[in-house]
Amino acid sequence: MKKLLVLLMGIALVLAIAACGSKDTKSAGSTTTPAASAAAGGQQVVLKATNFKFDQTEYRVKKGEPVTISLENAEGMHGASIKEFKINLDNSKKTATFTPDKAGSFPINCSIMCGTGHANMKTTLIVE
Hints:
Layout: H1 2-21, E1 37-39, E2 42-50, E3 53-54, E4 58-61, E5 67-73, E6 80-82, E7 87-89, E8 95-98, E9 104-109, E10 122-127
Parallel strand pairs: 2-5, 4-10
Antiparallel strand pairs: 1-2, 2-3, 5-8, 6-7, 9-10
């Protein structure tokens, strides 16, 4: 029983370490737009995630206008969650569109356990 428990703990540790250590080759060489820009069909936000941080400390959008938010894992494997708008992005769902109906500052957190800096991997969506 103890051997099985130790084996399972070892596998869990390897998976947690590998989550931030893997490289997403699909995003190599791609460019991102700044936080939000006017585009056909609404505002665009690209969250570029690297190990334990997002590329910007805040992203600004306008209230009442559609927003398409995308996650780009430039380094490691991460997710993005905005609880107030029920947004949860990861490698299986990299894009979501929503219309923010309230102004304010809303935390964006990494939603995939990515290693030792996971708890500090945060940014903010500011709806004006």
